[in-house]
Structure formats: C-alpha cells, structure tokens
Amino acid sequence: MMTNEPWKENSRKGEKPSIVILGGEQSLLSSAALYSVLKFSLFTSMILALLVLAGCRPSGVLLQPVPAEIERIEGHASLRITTEQGSTRSKFTFLFQLPQPQQGRIEVSDALLGRTLYQIIMDRERAVFVLPSKKVYWEGEEEEIINTFLGFRLNLGEMISLLRGEWAGEEGEEESGKNAERWNLNRDEAGRIVAGKRGNLSFEVKEFLSSSGLPRILIFQHPLNSGRLKILRIDFNRPVKKKKAFSFDFLARYQHVSWEEMEKILADEH
C-alpha cells in the first residue's frame, strides 16, 4: 500500500531515510564556511603582522646601525665584471679587520651553483690566492691579488675604504699605497663620497644604504674592464666565527704554485 510518507516506505524495505533535515545541513555548511574564513583571516593577519615587524626592523642589508667606531666589517655581495670577452658574475663573502694591522678575507663563489671558487687572505705582510678544490695557492703583492678579483689594482686599505665609504685622506684625497698616486674624491651635500678617480680608474656610488654613507651599489670603470658591486648584507664588529680566519697556517698542507700555473689550473676548472 502506498503512503503519503515516503520515508516510512523506504524504512519498510530496510533502507535509511533519504531526507535530511534542511536546517541541520545548512548549519553544518555554515560552520565549515566560517571555519575556512577564520583560517584565511588568521593567515592574513599573520602575514600583515610579519610585514609590520619587518618594517620596524633595520634593513635586511644593513643588519645594525653603523657604530661610531668600526673594528670589523663583514658581509655578502655580488660582483659583475665585464670585459671585451664578455661578463662574469660571482658572489662573495668578505671579512675585514680595520685596526692595524689591517687584515682581509674574501671567499668567492659561483653565482649560480654557489660552490666556492677561490679564497683571498691578506694582511700588510702577505697576500695569497687560494684554490681549495685543488689545494694550491699563489702568493703575490696585495694589489696583484685584488687585481685578479676585481680586474684592477687596489691595496687592502683602499678595498676597505670603498666598502665603508670613508677614506683616511683629507679634502677628498687618499694616498694609494706604494705607487703614491692619489684619489680625487667627490662628495655630495651630505658629505658622502659619491665618486672617485685615480689615474684611469674611477668609481661611482649608484646607491647608498639608507641614509648612511655606506655604498650599496658601486660602479667601476677601467680601460680594460668595468664592474658592478652590490652589497647584499653588511654587519659590523661581530665576533669572528672562524678563530683563524686570517691565519696562513693551513697553507702548509697546500702546494705553492706560480700565477702561470694557477691560470692553467683555473682554465682546466672551467
């Protein structure tokens, strides 16, 4: 016998009722939708909070305000050198000790793969170009060593001066080490060094870090090449992580080679 209550008919056949209370279904849907909205709102709030906190912190490049007295400079930078043969790109870390005797350590890596290409360690008495992958090193004058890195000759003091934006000389001039050539330096209204020239080598600061005198982007021009150096991160006076960062002791386990031999090894590496 047919009935006007279909659910009872289904029940007689052992089937579960097919009709669901609409009010309950709507409540379940509303709860799920509300949960999704709350999750999205919470996620959005977290992102906004992080952005606000990031805005309150110092720049990701300049990790702390520049101290009045600088003892050490360390950081990370990118470098592009362009010659008639083409352009090369690399990244490097740097660590410089400023009080006398000045010391420097540069580790250059491949811009794409990140593998270490070579290291430079310098002080006022010694400078070496190290190839860790082959356990060989070449020793030369500090200006020769930096020339292999930048493509033009600078001494250790000049390298530090470029990165910190301050030069020891007065009235826009800095004596250039052993060759006694002098830099002619140009300053802006704020007293920051914006450009410099020595002989056929010149540089220009394209961008500063915040309102400081620290260069963020440096452009170099030389008859044989041009370059662009960009600071990615810089910090001051942090304790040195490597106890023997400037030590030459490890070279006892390496083979000393001439520059001609080093050039051949580098050519074979590429």
Plain-language structure description:
The chain is α+β, with helices and mostly antiparallel strands and 270 residues long. It folds into two domains: 6-56; 72-269, Clam (outer membrane lipoprotein receptor (LolB), chain A). The chain is built from five helices and 13 strands. It has helices at residues 6-12, 22-56, 142-150, 156-164, 259-269, and strands spanning 72-83, 86-97, 103-110, 116-123, 127-131, 136-139, 173-176, 181-187, 193-198, 201-208, 215-222, 225-236, 255-256. The longest helix has 35 residues, at 22-56. It is globular and about 50 Å long.
Secondary structure: elements and pairs:
Layout lengths: L5 H7 L9 H35 L15 E12 L2 E12 L5 E8 L5 E8 L3 E5 L4 E4 L2 H9 L5 H9 L8 E4 L4 E7 L5 E6 L2 E8 L6 E8 L2 E12 L18 E2 L2 H11 L1
Parallel strand pairs: 6-13
Antiparallel strand pairs: 1-2, 1-12, 2-3, 3-4, 4-5, 5-6, 7-8, 8-9, 9-10, 10-11, 11-12
Number of domains: 2
Order of helices and strands: HHEEEEEEHHEEEEEEEH
**Remind me, CATH topology of the largest domain?**
outer membrane lipoprotein receptor (LolB), chain A
Q: How does the overall form come out from the CA principal axes? A: globular
Spans of at least 5 consecutive residues with low confidence = 5-29, 49-59, 170-176
What is the number of E strands?
A: 13
Give the terminus-to-terminus CA distance. Answer: 91 Å
CATH class of the largest domain: Mainly Beta
Spatial arrangement of strands, main beta sheet = 7-8-9-10-11-12-1-2-3-4-5-6-13
